[in-house]
Each structure stands twice: as structure tokens, then as C-alpha cells.
Design a protein that fits this description.
three-stranded mixed beta sheet, elongated, 27% helix, binds zinc ion, 113 residues, alpha+beta
């Protein structure tokens, strides 16, 4: 399951970081997820809770921040917002679109004690 492996990864990263800072507990984590990343947010929340069990992140709250999709037309250089991979350029209708934002997934911040 895709979301489960992401959740395990996130827990792994944040617990390592918290340990490096001699923290005892992770209270909160903010994740940025692009709308084109193909992640089911509800499923990820559920998996995150499961992945946190018996770690220092147990009961940590995860906040997901949606990052909107943005594309750049390779023909006319216009940038525009997109919410699917198959969006044509609204300016010249070209499908030569480079996705410049919306596929990322990163940890923005963590709150530790
Ligand atoms: Zn264009």
C-alpha cells in the first residue's frame, strides 16, 4: 500500500530528527503534499496513526498542507495552475507542459518536546 510506505518513511525521518535533537516526544508534524502526488490524504492520515504506534511519534498530530499544481508550457512559456497531468496550456492549447509544482511531498516542520 502506497500510503503505508509513505507513512512509515515519514515516521522514520521525524523520529531520527527528534532523536538527533534529544527530544522525548513528537507532538506534531506538518507535511506538504502536492495535489498531483497521487496521495490519498485520508488514507495517509490513517496509516500515519498506525505507523506512529510504539514510537516517540505516538499520538502525534499530522497536518497536511496541499500544494497546488503548476505547469509551464514548453511552447509559449506561460505558467498556469493545473490539477491533472493531462492539462493543455490554456494559452496555446499545447500539451507540451512541464509540471513545475504539485508532485512534491515533504516535511515542512515538526514540533517536538
Ligand atoms: Zn502554451
Amino acid at each position: 500500500m502506497h500510503e503505508m510506505s509513505i507513512a512509515i518513511n515519514v515516521v522514520d525521518i521525524i523520529t531520527k530528527q527528534a532523536q538527533a535533537e534529544n527530544a522525548k516526544k513528537i507532538n506534531e508534524v506538518d507535511l506538504e503534499i502536492g495535489v498531483l502526488a497521487g496521495v490519498m490524504v485520508e488514507s495517509l492520515q490513517f496509516c500515519f496513526e498506525a505507523a506512529c504506534k510504539d514510537t516517540m511519534a505516538e499520538d502525534a498530530k499530522m497536518t497536511i498542507i496541499d500544494v497546488p499544481g503548476k505547469g509551464k508550457c514548453l511552447d509559449c512559456n506561460k505558467t498556469f495552475s493545473i490539477d491533472t497531468y493531462l492539462a493543455p496550456c490554456p494559452n496555446c492549447q499545447s500539451f507540451s507542459v512541464d509540471i513545475i509544482q504539485g508532485r512534491e511531498m515533504k516535511i515542512r516542520s515538526i514540533n517536538i518536546d
